[in-house]
Write the structure tokens for this entry.
Amino acid sequence: MENEMVKDAISKLKEANIRITPQRYAVLEYLVEYHTHPTADEIYRALESRFPNMSVATVYNNLRMLTELGLVQEMKYGDASSRFDFSTHRHYHAICQNCGKIADFHYPSLDDVEIAAGRLTGFDIQDHRLEVYGICPECQEKM
Ligand code: ZN
Ligand code: MN
């Protein structure tokens, strides 16, 4: 399953005539394998031992490129570092207010919100985003 996701992403890169460098592959693989919504810095730290010549800017550039191709979603939180999510399906996030952990959840019936919002505002709705906040199961146990 994870391998398939990496393979699909690689073929999209090839279609877009983007060279698959080992670093690029590693960034992609990391995002698919550790679905923790990492920051660029976290990815950099996880890969720096494998790629001693890689800079954090390289990681950023790769993430930017993957985002532009629509393979990765950038999650911006005001002044805090962006988090990156390998996602091909729409989903939502539950964010732990204690440890910052982010869990994915799917809730397809929320697509109706776009129709309702369009009707209520006259907007041609393109997208929506939802985050819920609370305490994750691990933190609940520790409390
Ligand atoms: Zn937590
Ligand atoms: Mn996610």
The longest helix spans residues 2-15. The chain is about 45% helix and 20% strand. The pocket of zinc ion (ligand 1) is lined by residues 96, 98-99, 101, 136, 138-139 (CB under 6 Å). The helical segments are 2-15, 22-33, 40-47, 56-68, 111-121, 137-142.
